[in-house]
Amino acid sequence: MFRLVLVTVVTLVSGELGSRLFWFLRGGVPLTDPSRVLYSLYPDLRQIDKHQPRSDDRKFDVLLLGASTLHPDFGPVALMLKERLTRELRRPVRVHNLAEAGHMSRDSVLKYRAVGPARFDLVVVYDNINETRANNCPPEVFREDYSHFGWYLSANAIAPSHGRARWALPMTCRFLVTVCQRLLWSEQMVSRGDPRPDWLPYGQTVRSADSLRANLAEIQALALAREEPLVLMKFATYFEPQYDRTKFKNLELDYCLHISPTDIWGPADQVRNAVAVHNEVIVDSAQSHPEVIFVDQEAALEKTAVNFNDVCHFTAHGCEIFVETLVDELLRRGIVVATREQAADPQSPK
Q1: What percent of the chain has pLDDT over 90?
Q2: What is the sign, positive or negative, of the torsion defined by CA atoms of 251, 130, 322, 119?
Q3: CB atoms closer than 10 angstroms to residue 209
Q4: Residue-wise pLDDT tens digits, 263-287
Q5: Helices 335-344 and 316-332, axial angle in degrees (round to 10)
Q6: Coil/strand/helix, residue 93
Q7: CATH topology (fold) of 2-344
Q8: Helical (H) or strand (E) element with 231
Q9: What is the pLDDT of residue 139?
């Protein structure tokens, strides 16, 4: 009996130590704190934990959630926003940019949950086009939580442990189960890269609309509970009428840098339709919550190479228009005026 207990204890301890080492090597999760497990998927969460933004100090903290359109590798939106807000507010501004190429509204939900006690003076969400990839599969494969992508199958499994886990072994077991599922049923998983050609016709049905609606609803609920101003924006695109992959590759279209070809999301007509449906969801989500700040970037950005490097990524001029449109709406809604007063007295109520 004693030997059985000893073997069990040694096995569990070895499993726990091995699990902690696994997450440390995989994603820099601290050996002493396995609850930071989402660092392995979203490394920029480290900076949130490091700075611990608060709503009762002199700094104006902005959280950006979205995909490559907000990421500095694809344009200076974050920097321009910081400069414009600093000029308007006359106080220090920090932009915490959790946007990442390829990410979807499911990532935005998981990241916004994971910021824990951090509090922001403004939360900006800009998701849409990447959701279209979710539709490129048979209806029996599609999952509303996007777990028909291997990435989300694993992310959904470990996300509940972030900020809560005291032990690494249980969540490691859950993660390894998803790895096995991804290997066994790889043919039933959707790629976050170019879609499978034989599944492209399924993209005509925009099943992702309900997923986007559910994800935005959770973000809205979190923002309301945290008393953080939330911005939702209609997604801006420029579908060049003469588009085809060869012309895009040869820089022959009315885009500037020709960064991302449209068909990495699917056929152009299907992507255009899905983006339009998603925009309707965004508008409806904003209108059903009066506290949400809505910005129509689709109307603000003229469809020319002056503003667009491809179907959705902006030129420097496009980034400037994007930021101006956002900040002008903040001014109109009184968000900036209120925070100027807050700067004079950080302890005053917002």
Answers
A1: 87
A2: negative
A3: 17
A4: 999 999 999 999 999 999 999 999 9
A5: 80
A6: strand
A7: Rossmann fold (3.40.50)
A8: strand 230-234
A9: 96
User: How confident is residue 350, by pLDDT bands cut at 50, 70 and 90?
Assistant: very low
Q: Distance between CA 271 and CA 239 in Å, rounded?
A: 9
* 281 sits in which H/E element: helix 268-287
Strand 230-234, strand 93-97: pairing: unpaired
For residue 170, the surrounding DSSP H or E stretch is: helix 169-184
In order of 97, 127, 149, 268, 311, the CA distances from 195 in angstroms are 28, 19, 12, 13, 17
Q: Provide φ and ψ at 296, rounded to 5°.
A: -95, 85
**Whole-prediction pTM:** 0.92
> Rounded to the nearest 5°, which phi and psi values hold at 59?
-75, 145
Average of per-residue pLDDT across 233-256: 97
CA atoms within 13 A on the CB side of 302: 6
**What residues have CB less than 8 Å from 6, skipping those under 6 apart?**
none
pLDDT score for 7: 67
Q: Which residues of 107-116 are buried (b: 16+ CB within 10 A; e: fewer)?
A: bbbbbbbbbe
5: number of Cβ within 10 Å = 9
Residue 187: partners with Cβ closer than 8 Å, 6 or more residues away: none
Q: Which two tokens stand for residue 240?
A: 């060049």
Distance of CA 117 to the CA centre of its chain: 19
